[in-house]
């Protein structure tokens, strides 16, 4: 860890067990933690304008290096003033390294696997990996079929051109089906890539861009411990936890339990790709400070609304016939723009008719609901009642009553 | 014509030649005229929330009887409080009669033909017409294949259940390829249907719902004159001009010239399905008070932005490679939310990536641009300089400089 307030400051304001609340001060302003980070994969939180994302209370979004380097290209975004200027967002941005996406091309859709959905067909057009070596990954672009290369230096260079506030180091996201030996060797290579990322960034990176290291190690306690220590020893500004988190939620929480105790308390900790309501709460309980995840926005595109329904994975399908005549809002007591103005019956109708407005209303609700979950968690930690909050959420209370 | 201020008041505030500005006072508030009326075909202006449509300055939207009667059904919307309540819109609504859509099933896509694009494949799933008779039209629903019937009484009944502020009478929208004899007989039937609509509405219609008659007659001066007189003699609250308007814009303006002189000056006049920038200006010049059209919203879904480009039908394709690196807004000087915050290059990127946000940003721009066209026309009429405004727009001036 390094401490360099010009890049990033992390202030813990209150703790309650391992959970804590504070703020991450980036070169584009502060981010209250624990924070959920909406995906702006292609320089937009799907269906929303940047102003709306800010109105929802979000202070940090995640842009995808892989997608943006292929189209429109990092050079073009840099020429247009950087990613903040390009997408009209003046708050903080974290960029991932592209590692997750290129290795998903080789290993299958890791995100689905982590969530226990192995064997699903990957969505959309896929590129393919041509070669993985110590240098990096040669792959074929899913956009134009052109051969491309990304390694630690290339990833940091793209992220420097994008001008994100927080860059993530280039890593291999090891899949669950990789054996212990592969995972061990891959994790060591990820550590060497970490050193190369930091060396490149020290020399060439934007002065005010922070860099987060990534802990790998699969589901193996010794590999996770070793990775946690190895990453913590380097001159990073924060730590992300990546790779497979197991087959199911208990295993995911187990991986967190074998990792977080080996990380410096004072380090800001990000959990990659996780964001269902119970996972947010369990992550916060283990000292995680931020989370990014496609769940709220992706569910919206499939007609699903987040709701205090622990027995149904905290969601329901508004397209179900049961909601056709429902005059109540998506979630009683929810103060989001959708629930304030519209009935379930209306959202049901729009979602069935595949109207863009339906996706939008569900996206607004799901992101408001998720922000409410973390905002109320921050309050609960500050008030020393996080354990009660956690129990209430897991028992089916809406955040504002928990 | 009837005058019944409880249903509708129309106040002409200023005239300049045949052009005039005023307000239409409906049971859901006033509408400044000349007005453009965005389509809310399926109870939403595509990709926007009702609040956004109001923020754009619109006071009247058009809901489609055909679409809403098939799904979710007029009874359901009535049970949920009517169309205003259903879509969360507390300003005025006009509903069409469903005639245009069911006759399009029989005649082909009349809208395309009017615009000189005959022979295009109709978009989307199509139902089919089983029988056209004096009673009305038997057709097969494009949604579930069920046999349905709509005639004058059914149309008015649906519109009564929707609770629109202005209902349109059930008519046959005669296509351009119909011969004079067919058009004459069809127009007479439309007149008989007008009487049946008014009879049903007098007995059963909502007390505060206004009814507009529709002038037909194809491209035939004598039929248009006869229809204009016949419609004007009945107890309607306003007049819409429907049917084919010819093969091209000069013919369209010709059909207006053979129709409007035979309508009462004091009647509010709506031109159905027309809304390209030059057509709005030419319609206003001929005394038209309101227009509805899919153009601004449909163009947005195809990556097209409205702009002061008379030589290119007032539009350009933002997906063109020429815009990939353009740091300027869609239209210089435009104060819409999109142009204030985003470059052409960003909208280009989103439109090419088929991101919903791209459709949204273009919809916001196109509707803001169109509202600006009619708002500036209102100012020009009030100031007695409409002729100069018309020339400036047709010569390529943006509305705010014309």
Keywords:
homodimer, 402 residues, alpha/beta, TIM Barrel, eight-stranded parallel sheet, three-stranded antiparallel sheet, 16 helices, 16 strands, 18% strand, globular
Please provide a written account of the structure.
- The structure is a homodimer of 402-residue chains.
- By secondary structure, chain A is α/β, with parallel strands linked by helices.
- The first copy, chain A, folds into 2 domains: 9-293, Queuine tRNA-ribosyltransferase-like (TIM Barrel); 304-401, no CATH class.
- Chain A has 16 helices and 16 strands.
- The first copy, chain A, has helices at residues 50-55, 65-70, 74-79, 83-87, 99-107, 110-114, 152-162, 180-204, 221-232, 249-259, 277-285, 295-301, 337-341, 344-352, 356-382, 386-394, and strands spanning 9-16, 19-26, 29-33, 35-38, 60-63, 92-95, 128-132, 137-140, 147-150, 166-168, 210-215, 238-241, 269-271, 290-293, 304-306, 315-317.
- In chain A, the strands form 4 sheets. Chain A has an 8-stranded parallel beta sheet. The first copy, chain A, has a 3-stranded antiparallel beta sheet with strand order 1-2-3. A 3-stranded antiparallel beta sheet of chain A has the order 7-8-9.
- The radius of gyration of chain A is 20 Å and the shape is globular.
- The interface between A and B is large, with 39 and 39 residues.
């Amino acid at each position: 860890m390094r401490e360099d307030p010009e890049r990033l400051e992390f202030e813990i304001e209150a703790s309650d067990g391992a959970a804590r609340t504070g703020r991450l001060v980036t070169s584009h302003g502060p981010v209250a933690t624990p924070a959920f980070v909406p995906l702006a994969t292609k320089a937009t939180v799907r269906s929303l304008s940047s102003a709306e994302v800010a109105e929802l209370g979000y202070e940090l979004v995640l842009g995808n290096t892989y997608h943006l380097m292929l189209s429109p290209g990092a050079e073009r975004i840099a020429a247009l003033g950087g990613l903040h200027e390009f997408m009209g967002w003046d708050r903080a941005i974290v960029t991932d390294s592209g590692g997750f996406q290129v290795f998903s091309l080789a290993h299958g859709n890791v995100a689905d696997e982590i969530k226990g959905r192995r064997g699903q067909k990957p969505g959309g057009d896929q590129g393919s990996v041509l070669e993985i070596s110590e240098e990096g990954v040669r792959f074929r672009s899913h956009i134009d079929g052109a051969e491309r290369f990304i390694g630690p230096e290339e990833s940091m260079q793209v992220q420097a051109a994008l001008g994100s506030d927080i860059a993530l180091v280039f890593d291999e996201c090891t899949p669950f089906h990789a054996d212990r030996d592969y995972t061990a060797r891959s994790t060591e290579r990820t550590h060497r890539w970490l050193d190369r990322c930091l060396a490149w960034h020290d020399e060439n990176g934007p002065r005010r861009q922070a860099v987060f290291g990534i802990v790998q190690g699969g589901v193996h306690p010794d590999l996770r411990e070793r990775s946690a220590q190895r990453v913590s020893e380097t001159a990073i500004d924060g730590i992300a936890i990546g790779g497979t988190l197991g087959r199911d939620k208990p295993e995911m929480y187990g991986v967190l339990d074998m990792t977080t105790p080996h990380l410096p308390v004072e380090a800001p900790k990000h959990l990659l790709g996780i964001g269902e309501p119970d996972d947010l709460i369990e992550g916060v309980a283990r000292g995680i400070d931020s989370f990014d995840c496609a769940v709220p926005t992706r569910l919206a595109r499939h007609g699903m609304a987040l709701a205090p329904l622990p027995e149904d994975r905290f969601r329901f399908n508004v397209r179900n016939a049961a909601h056709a005549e429902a005059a109540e809002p998506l979630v009683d007591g929810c103060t989001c723009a959708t629930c304030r103005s519209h009935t379930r019956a209306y959202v049901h109708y729009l979602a069935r008719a595949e109207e863009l407005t339906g996706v939008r209303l569900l996206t607004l609700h799901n992101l408001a609901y998720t922000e409410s979950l973390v905002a109320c968690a921050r309050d609960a930690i500050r008030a020393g009642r996080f354990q009660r909050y956690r129990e209430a959420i897991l028992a089916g209370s809406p955040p504002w009553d928990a």
